[in-house]
Amino acid sequence: MFRSLICSAVLGSILLTQPALAQEPADNTAQADDSSQAQDIGTLQAELARVEAERQRLADQLDGGAQGERVEQLQSENQQLRNDNQAARLDAQARLIKQQQRWFLIGGLSVAASILGLCPCPHGPSEAPRMAELTPVLIIDDDQELCELLRDWLATERFELTAAHDGPSGLAAARANSYAALILDVMLPGMNGLEILRELRQSCQTPLLMLSARGEPVDRILGLELGADDYLAKPCDPRELVARLRALLRRSQPSPDTGSEELSLGNLRLDTCNLMAWQADEPLQLTQSEALILRALMARPGQVVDRQTLSREALGKPLGSYDRSLDMHISNLRRKLGPHPEGRQRIQSIRGRGYLLGH
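and the corresponding structure tokens:
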């Protein structure tokens, strides 16, 4: 009996201790799972922090690139503004120079008129009383105020001035009407003066004076090479303009002692009255200055004609130290005459003396 009680107590004790022994492995497993999850969470947090840091770095780089592009855009816009300002300054300077030239000429006209006791007609040039034998002159210039001033001034000098203010209309007027002389500006709207000169010289030999603000030697030489008879830079004294016009007209008129004489030398012929020339019976398209140079040389066959004599007889003025206009006209005349049948130049340069027209 006693033994059975002891066995029951031992068995009960074993049964009571078994759940505790079974619960201990479960607790250890849970603790291991919690530790693993914590490690996983730590790893994920570290990776998330790394990704966030990389994202921030890339964002900073993108922001830096955008700022760089913006800086470059601002620099480009600033440069464009500087270029626009420079262009505006140059345009303003050009307008100022043109205005100064205009007022310089206005002042010259006013002073000359006050000295000579002249004044414009109160009714305007269109209503001024007509004088007998007014000399018709065409001016092609886009400066309308200047043209009006010159019209009033030249009217007192017995010139009748007609004005055209752009290239195409000036060329049409020069072709459609007969003028004693032409005054031509270089910088014109629609068609520049050099193009007009080139077109006119193909069929018209009217005495022509270039009047332009472009007074550099290269501009003068180009104008003379294309067929201008004279070149005057703006601003100018209006009395000099009148003197040059009269010199052009004098040279275009035959001398009293020449009459309708015809000069000939080899296959060259020249009508000294009309200043028309032929080579082997083919007409030569010579400007007035070129025809007068040819006349001066043909009148002295085989003789050296000095440069001063040629300048006075053909160009109506003494030759200045740096004046190359005679040389330009000689060069054009040589080109139009061509070489002698034997191959030598028809117009020969004699160093230190002048020019000679060979037989």
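(Above: one complete record from the training split.) Confidence is low (pLDDT under 50) at residues 19-26, 118-131.
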